[in-house]
Amino acid sequence: MYNKASLKAEEFISHEEITATLAYAEENKENFALIDEILAKAELCKGLSHREASVLLACEEPTRVARMYTMAEELKKKFYGNRIVMFAPLYLSNYCINGCVYCPYHMKNKHIARKKLTQEEIVREVTALQDMGHKRLALEAGEDPVNNPIEYILECIDTIYSIKHKNGAIRRVNVNIAATTVENYRKLKDAGIGTYILFQETYHKESYEKLHPTGPKHDYAYHTEAMDRAMEGGIDDVGLGVLFGLELYKYEFAGLLMHAEHLEAVHGVGPHTISVPRIKRADDIDPTVFDNGISDDIFAKLCALIRISVPYTGMIISTRESKEVREKVIRLGVSQISGASRTSVGGYCEPEPEEENSEQFDVSDKRTLDEVVRWLMEFGYIPSFCTACYREGRTGDRFMSLCKSGQIQNCCHPNALMTLKEYLMDYASEETKRIGEALIQAELNNIPKEKVREVCEDHLKKIEEGIRDFRF
Ligand code: SAM
C-alpha cells in the first residue's frame, strides 16, 4: 500500500503506485487541458507531485515541452541566480565487497588495482586539490568494513579539514559512502560533514536486486531507507540520485520524486541535492550492456523537470558528462558541477600509471579547473566556491527557507563573488583573472541591498590585501 509517510521502503516507493503513475501519465500525455493546468501550477514555483511531473515527462507536444524548458530556466534564475557551485570528488578507497554489476569496484573484478589512501597520501591529494582552488569535496569509497570502516572515513575527514596549504582550505566535505547505521551517520555528522549523498541506483526493487546480486548493498530496503537513518542521525542535508541507464527512466523519475516527497512528509525537509549520473564505460564495464541508456535530449528533459518539480533542491552534474552536454543542461537548473575530477584513488597529486588503473569510470569533461571556471564565466555564470550556508548552520529547512524567501541574492550572491575573488587572487590564470574581475564588478550591481553591497565591496578589498574567508 502506498504511503509517503511510511518508514518502509516498499511503502513509500510503492511499485504499484509507480506503475499506476506511469499508466496515468501515458493516458494523459495528450490531455492538453490537464497538461496546461500542471504547467500553470509549476509556474507558481511550488513544485509538482510525482504524478503531475510524470505526465509532463510523458508529454511530447513540442510547444509544451519548450515551455517546460523555459520554465526550468526561469526558475533556476529566480532561485539560484547565475551561480554554479564548484566541487571535486576525492576517492579514498576502491576496496569493495559488493557485487554491483555496473561498477568496476565490484568484488569479483580482479584486474582493477585496489587502493586505499593513507593519511599521508590524503595530505598530498588534498594539497593538490587546494592548489587548484577547490574548497568543497565529495568523498567517495567502496563498501568494505575491514578496509574502509567508518573509523577510516572519520580519520580521513579530520585529516582533510586540518590541511591548510598556502591560502587553501577544504571548507566543506560531503560524503558518498554506502548505506550505514544511525550511529555511524551520527559520527559523520559530528565529524562536520556537509551533505550525505547516496545514489539509489534504481528504485525498481526487482532490478535492484539483480543489479546488486551480492554483498550488503543487495538489501533494497536497507539501502532505500538510508536517508531516514541519516536524518535520524542528525544529518539535515541529504543528496539523492539515480544511475540513469539501469532501468526505465520514467520509472526512476517517479521513484526519485516519491523519495523526495517521502523525506518532506517524514522529516519536514526534502533532499538538499539530486544528482543525475549516467552509466559510463569503466574497467570491466561496458555501458551498452545496459539497454536503458537515455539520449542527451531525454537527459535534458529530465533535468528540466527535476528543476520545476523540486524547485528548492540543488542539482548536480558531474564530469561523467561532456562539456557539450553540460552546456546544454546547466541552464536548465543545475546548481553544482564538479571540475578537473579524477575518479581514481589518488591521481590529483600525480597521474596514475596506466598499469595501475583504479578509476571508477571514464571522465568525459577532462578540462582543468581554470578552464572550467573561465568557460562558466564566458557562458554568463558565476563559479562559486562558497560553503557558507553549512558553516553558518543554514542546513535542512533553514536553507530551504532562505531559498524560498528569495534572500539568496543578498546572501549566496555576494558569497559567490567573494569566493570567486579568492579563486582569482590565489589560483587563476591571467586570462581567467581578467574575465573574473570584470564579472565581479558587473555582478556587484545585482546585490539588491545597498548595505550588503557595501560590505561585500569592503570584503573584496580585504581579499586583495590577503585576508580570506569572508561570508554572509
Ligand atoms: N559505495 C558507495 C555506494 O555504494 O553507494 C559509494 C558510491 S560509488 C563510489 C559512487 C557512485 O558511482 C555509485 O553510487 C554509482 O551510482 C556510480 N557509478 C558506479 N559505477 C558507475 C559507472 N560505471 N558509470 C557511472 N557511474 C557509476
Structure notes:
The model has no long low-confidence stretch (mean pLDDT about 95). It contains 20 helices and 9 strands. It folds into 2 domains: about 75-365, Aldolase class I (TIM Barrel); about 405-465. Helix 3 packs parallel to helix 5 and helix 5 (about 60-80) crosses helix 13. Helix 12 (about 250-265) links the parallel strand 5 and strand 6. The chain has an 8-stranded parallel barrel, surrounded by 7 helices. It is an alpha/beta fold. Bound molecules: S-adenosylmethionine. S-adenosylmethionine (SAM) binds near residues 102, 201 and 243.
- Specify the biggest β-sheet: 8 strands, parallel, barrel
- The number of domains: 2
Q: Which structural class is indicated by helix and strand composition?
A: alpha/beta
> Low-confidence stretches at least 5 residues in length (pLDDT < 50)?
none
The name of the CATH superfamily of the largest domain reads Aldolase class I
Please name the CATH architecture of the largest domain: Alpha-Beta Barrel
- What distance lies between the first and last C-alpha atoms, to the nearest angstrom? 46 Å
Strand content bin:
5-15%
CATH fold-level label of the largest domain = TIM Barrel
Name of the level-1 CATH class of the largest domain: Alpha Beta
| Total count of strands | 9
The helix count comes to 20
Major sheet strand order? 1-2-3-4-5-6-7-8
